[in-house]
Amino acid sequence: MKAYISADMEGITGLVDAEDVQPPGRDYERGRVMMTEDVNAAIRGAYAAGATAVLVNDAHGPMRNLLPDLLDPRATLIKGRPKPMGMMEGLTSAYDAVLCVGYHARAGVLGVLSHSFMGHEIEDIWLDDQVTGEIGLFHAGAAAYGVPVAMLTGDDTACAEMSAWDAGVRTVAVKQAKDRFAAQLVPVLEARAAIESTTTEALRALPTVAAPSPTRRLTVRWQSASVASHLTGLPGVARRDDRTVTVEADMLTLYRLFNLFLRVATAVTSNPPYC
């Protein structure tokens, strides 16, 4: 069995603030250790379930947060950016399961460090007519490869978002959101034990993957009309109103195109995340 781990940072055990998850934040270096150890817990759980290979994709921000010297040596790491497929770089239909570690809730939800891909540049995302964020888009992309998302860790709002998208995914809430930058924390050792045991359980009882629709519609509402204007220069992208663009394609094409959207938006704007 081959397992794929996509590791974000906002939903990692103990982390609640931009200072924890962004360089050069005063607690960022400690946050990197915390992130690496949550991922290690998932790796241990995967091997306990019979995994023969584990690939980890560093999927947060600069995508060079995980510490290779502290990472379980049985796993292989993808580090750095840009990556054509972003948070799901390296995933293929050869994998048997996906594990999402350290994920967070979408923009507009009162979760810890909640947002959708960019700090506040993206107001809303819809896949077909369902509002979504990083969790839903990743789940849909994995399904397009025929690979089930088996487990997700994060705060309670991220876990609820995943369960609403797919009730078959096991979740581990490592903190309870009190506000966007505050949470009641599960003790560290307890959280990591839960990640490890839930990973093992999830991989021993994988959910089925529904056949994806051949054509999906992605709609993104930006805070800046300038971003929407620039994106209409891409083939197939139409503007629904001054700040909203939409495009139709198969899911994997949409996911790759969306990563291009993010690069255009980053070039057009200079807003830091979490403001």
From TrEMBL:
Zn(2+) 2 binds at residues 8, 60, 104, 134. It comes from the Bacteria. The active site is at residue 115. One of its GO terms (molecular function) is metal ion binding. Zn(2+) 1 binds at residues 8, 10. Keywords: Metal-binding, Zinc. This is Peptidase M55.
